[in-house]
Amino acid sequence: MLSCEDLTLSVPGRVLCRGVSFVLEPGQxxxxxxxxxxxxxxxxxxxxxxxxxxxxxxxxNGAALASLTYRQRARDIGVLLQQEETEFWGSVLEFVxxxxxxxxxxxFGWRDDDEASALxxxxxxxxxxxxxxxxxxxxxxxxxxxxIAQVLAQQPRLFLLDEPLQHLDLRHQVRTLECxxxxxxxxxxxxxxxxxxxxxxxxxxxxxLLIHDDGNTLAGPAQQVLTRANLExxxxxxxxxxxxxxxxxxxxxx
Amino acid sequence: xxxxxxxxxxxxxxxxxxxxxxxxxxxxSPALQVLGSVVNPVPDVVHDVVWKLRxxxxxxAFACGGLLAAAGALLQxxxxxxxxxxxxxxxxxxxxxxxxxxxxxxxxxxxxxxxxFGGAVAAIVIVFGLGFRSGDRNAYxxxxxxxxxxxxxxxxxxxxxxxxxxxxxxxxxxxxMGDLAYAESPIAAWIVLGMVLAYGMARAIExxxxxxxxxxxxxxxVGITWLQIGVFGVAALATVAAVxxxxxIGFVGLMVPHAIRLLGVAEHRVLLPLAVLAGxxxxxxxxxxxxxxxxxxxxxxxxxxxxxxxPAMLLLLGRRR
Lengths: 254, 321
What we know:
The structure holds 2 protein chains of 2 kinds.
Chain A: E1 2-11, E2 14-24, E3 29-34, H1 40-47, E4 58-60, E5 63-64, H2 70-76, E6 77-80, H3 92-97, H4 112-124, H5 140-154, E7 158-162, H6 170-186, E8 190-194, H7 201-204, E9 207-211, E10 217-221, H8 222-225, H9 228-235, E11 239-244, E12 247-252
Parallel strand pairs in A: 3-8, 3-9, 6-7, 7-8
Antiparallel strand pairs in A: 1-2, 1-4, 4-5, 9-10, 11-12
Helix pairs in contact in A: 4-5
Chain B: H1 3-23, H2 31-39, H3 45-78, H4 91-104, H5 109-131, H6 139-163, H7 166-177, H8 187-202, H9 204-210, H10 214-219, H11 224-246, H12 252-262, H13 268-292, H14 301-320
């Protein structure tokens, strides 16, 4: 689905990561891990086609991302940004409906199926009763859930999520992860998510991409990549591994 | 209020304001006679007063108000700043400077208009060129460039005022405060208004998406650079058309879009037409008051828009709490 071959990303004065290669297939759930400032967000932007430098290094179903029209790309790739500087005066439902833009065919108003997917997405993040509320009145965690609903309503084949769990309470962290795992397994969507702690990836993700501070990266199945030694080297912090039922968790060993 | 009801109320208000502008004035013209002359035009004195004197000014006021409100709504979303108004791009300062320089040199109306137009376009080109260079299309940069340029031009306007012969200062002040007394035929302004509204409606959803920020809107499939250039161009066009009609009339472009938003309308598909109707209605009423309340003295309409608008806006803001 999404392939990335020998991608190098840099910001002025620094190479963030070099030689990033991996293939994201439908049904897979990738975790992108790294320290603060290691280039996780830049990578998400590059994979989403929002940066110019990848050129043909990133391909969607074989076609270079840069060769697709904006709308085609938006129908296939949904992005949840880490920081969305939202200046939105309308209701929560109107906010979520904007996610339907790549599918909109009419200039005058949304169609019924747009509204249906928006309401379904709101229900998925437990915000259905908030639909008529003004977006500006939501709390931080509720806003994050509304943003997730917006990208769900977009119904892309590939989700790129930058810190999807930020501001969420534990219950909604678990619900969000379960929701995307369901989409990956049941609806054959591809998911890649930037996470900033080591607690969840080994429990929910099928694959992982580690970005080290020196710019080297390690990508592969979670079982091989998410080991205690790898993660300790990544974070520079001692970890303890907890095995419980079907999952493994890593917590700081302090 | 539901959307159809809002449209009905605002349309009726718009017609009412235009009718009031046709019926009110120093020359006695009973409402029934005015109505008769609207429905069934028979050449007589009332007909001439209504259609030759009052109608051009009334329609100029309406177009001017509509253009300012539309430009304000567009710039507020383009610059992602609630305090943006049509003059933030330096258009009115550029036009004022051009007009005042022409006045000091003793130019006629035509030359003054040409100078005002030249000043406005020069300001737009400078702001666009400096604030919107390729590679860095940051809304704040555009905003700051406009504010800085407007400040500089205002200083030059003040300088021109101080240096000007005392006899000309009053005429200049009227130009600066906004006045529709010298409005030319409003047909061109109505055509521009139609174009601006058509563009805004065609791009309504993209405008909503701009509120999410450049990157998010881009990820949802909006061709963001061309949209920003288009919105900038259309807002600048609307502002120039409005300034050429009535000078720098304040308040309408800043506050009318907010008043509509306070009524619970945020989607541009609904917001833009309502703002045009409300801006036109408001300025038509204000201009009618400006030429009738103190008749035969005339007030600059720019002063009246603030005098009427500020209490109305404070009331709306207070009610919301």
